[in-house]
Amino acid sequence: MAQDLVIGIDVGGQTSKCGIVDARGTVVAQTVIRTDTYDTVEPFIAELAEALNRIIAEAKAEGQIRGIGVGAPNGNYYTGCIESAPNLKWGHNKVEFAKLLSEQMNGIPVSLTNDANAAAVGEMTYGAARGMKNFIMITLGTGVGSGIVINGEVVYGHDGFAGELGHTCAVRHNGRQCGCGKHGCLEAYCSAMGVARTAREWLEMSDEPSELRSLDRITSKDVYEAAKDGDKMALKIFEFTGRILGEKLADFIEFSAPEAIVLFGGLARSKEFLTEPILEAMNANVLPLWRNKVKLIYSSLKESDAAILGASALAWEL
Amino acid sequence: MAQDLVIGIDVGGQTSKCGIVDARGTVVAQTVIRTDTYDTVEPFIAELAEALNRIIAEAKAEGQIRGIGVGAPNGNYYTGCIESAPNLKWGHNKVEFAKLLSEQMNGIPVSLTNDANAAAVGEMTYGAARGMKNFIMITLGTGVGSGIVINGEVVYGHDGFAGELGHTCAVRHNGRQCGCGKHGCLEAYCSAMGVARTAREWLEMSDEPSELRSLDRITSKDVYEAAKDGDKMALKIFEFTGRILGEKLADFIEFSAPEAIVLFGGLARSKEFLTEPILEAMNANVLPLWRNKVKLIYSSLKESDAAILGASALAWEL
């Protein structure tokens, strides 16, 4: 029987999404299991294999799975391991995830990388970057991740951990502390968390009126809603966020001369407020030879499928 | 007869160095011609071909030249053209350099790239980066150039112009104007020109004693000599220069996770004063996972041969 299906798994801190995907990028079956109820990896892998076998049976796909792709925090493509992932209860040490899962799945090959790299492969295989050989994917979620594609291949670097653009320096002096321990990282400003932090800081530092003042615990979604209502402070927060991101994108363009920057993730949904300041800062800060030449595009994948598709795309390369 | 020789040409603003190189990286014959006495490219190419034929005859290498590699400012690997090179009298418009030279040399294939990329290929083929598949070459000359190698290949990007790390932003606010028109570029601080500029600025801004005060027109070499004499301001200038470079290297590591950073060029000869501040800033600013793991090395190529070797190495890939 032809092996023309793959499985994609997106391992998150709370839940893991799994799906069976065909060559056209249709998710033909999917399920979700909890990630955070396990203290060690073995019972999680056992439960994961059970869930996969369930959807394989459901899709009548026995013997048709060519490979399994996994996107996971701190996933290393070279070693197939998850290493020191702070958000995974069982991931604090080095976990041989790909090997363990393959063993549980009767030897179906497993390929693993971090979530942002998986998103980049997904975008190249099924999404907005189809046909592109040089682009940079920036995921604007709780944090800022990145997947860099050069010559049609994801950049893994010497050790498998390349593409940490969220931790390049956006604010050199007196920058905010980032979750990684450094100060001034892009992630501390241009993630969903960063936007909420900007709002809280600005509210504290001024007495400018804003509908955000009435809220108890501000999220980036609140800032988005306020911006839609025309709230001046919320609009300025997006301008500030877009400018910082655009300035750093100029640096990234000078590194790898991509055809496009692809934005993805929860915060990218605020594109109506982000696009203009990003483009303005990016083009003002990049060398003239790239000015107004590098495209800024948004992921075209259906959000609910994107994580699974991204991970599954890895499996086609197996 | 076996074709086991290549030619390397380093096109500079004033002179162009040419040499015949064997597979072990020995320059078996070489010559230099002027670049700046021509207003159009055709007579320059004619003179260049004549010079090459002369050294080919001298080395008894007729019929043994496998290819010609050229390193030139704003050289584009994809198109073989030199585009808008401000330092080349005949290079202001687009010049089909590789095609023209190949025609003059009886169809010997010609490969062309910018000088920093050529240096990176040279370092990988004959020098300090031999055997490395992931490294970043930074050339600290009059300006700051870069050649990025990922998976054993030079990064050319979507358009052939990737690797302009000298024009990434080192000082975001009130940064110095750079020759490219932008402000705060790495090149404006960490090139030979940048070091001289720091000296002039600091002398003007303070009345701290320094032997540099007695000089009429300060160069980076003067600053180096003064530092060797123990001059405090000169030593602080190198500390400042090294710190700025180290801070940016941290960003670059987070992009492509290289095994090593390779420094090359006139200013790199001041390594006794630069190494410590570079490493300190690089390791303080990079994510913990790369701290004290990425090597900082200096080109091991003989300076007089390096430009020819770098360009010639391109030709082996033809």
Strand percentage of chain A lies at 15-25%
Major β-sheet strand ordering of chain A? 3-2-1-4-5
Uncertain residue ranges of chain A: none
Number of helices of chain A: 9
Global geometry of chain A: globular
SSE-based structural type of chain A: alpha/beta
* Mean pLDDT across every amino acid position of chain A: 94
Topology:
The structure is a homodimer of 318-residue chains.
Chain A lengths: L4 E7 L3 E8 L4 E8 L6 H18 L6 E7 L25 H8 L5 E4 L1 H12 L8 E6 L3 E7 L2 E2 L32 H4 L1 H14 L14 H9 L3 H25 L3 E5 L6 H15 L9 E4 L4 H14 L2
Parallel strand pairs in A: 1-4, 4-5, 6-9, 9-10
Antiparallel strand pairs in A: 1-2, 2-3, 6-7, 7-8
Helix pairs in contact in A: 1-2, 3-9, 5-6, 5-7, 6-7, 7-8
Q: Explain this structure to me?
A:
The structure is a homodimer. With about 325 residues, the first copy, chain A, is α/β, with parallel strands linked by helices. Chain A has nine helices and ten strands. A five-stranded mixed sheet of chain A has the order 3-2-1-4-5, sandwiched between helices. A five-stranded mixed sheet of chain A has the order 8-7-6-9-10, sandwiched between helices. In chain A, β9, α8 and β10 form a beta-alpha-beta unit. Chain A starts with a strand and ends with a helix. The model of chain A has no long low-confidence stretch (mean pLDDT about 95). The interface between A and B is large, with 42 and 42 residues.
